[in-house]
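request received
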Amino acid sequence: MNDHNPSLRPRPVSDSKSEMTEIVLPNDANPLNALVGGRLMHWIDLAAAMAAHRHSRHYVVTASVDHLDFLVPVRVGDIVILRSSVNRVFHTSMEVGVKVWVENYHTETSHHVSSAYLTFVAVDGTGSRRLPVAPVIPETDDEKRRYEGALRRRELRRSETARRKKV
Ligand SMILES: CC(C)(COP(=O)(O)OP(=O)(O)OC[C@H]1O[C@@H](n2cnc3c(N)ncnc32)[C@H](O)[C@@H]1OP(=O)(O)O)[C@@H](O)C(=O)NCCC(=O)NCCS
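response:
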């Protein structure tokens, strides 16, 4: 169907899966030696962009980031692991999920720090023209659940945007 345009050939979610690992240094922390939220938000954006690039094979821009919770503090010296993948493609946009974990190698513990949904839009090299993105194929049960959830979240985002425009 899209043989003439390989970038629009459907791809499995696994093609977009990305993992990013960071160690928390003093420059990433507040006076309490805990990772500052803004640094984590930056890493989340980068980890998500990797998945969006891998899937779309295009330049992408962040259109939105949904609600973010920081569930546990992350300390200097901890290792932060961010895992991302494309949940669903709409037309020129795609939802990417990122799950963040912290590992403490002294205590050999690992905790869930945050989860985030981001929407990216594919653009051309000038950044001015939006480009269609290949569909994503969910294969595992988790991927199928996220794929279904992504449509509901898109509707919520749209109704929230419409509500804000009225205010
Ligand atoms: C994101 C951006 C490209 C959308 O442009 P736009 O003219 O509003 O685009 P449209 O209304 O035609 O929508 C294009 C797609 O983006 C999606 N979109 C637009 N705004 C969105 C938002 N706030 N949240 C989620 N998706 C959004 C639309 O649903 C549509 O998706 P689809 O093609 O898959 O159906 C544009 O607002 C932009 O360039 N923003 C700046 C991006 C940037 O600089 N990011 C870095 C942050 S500092």
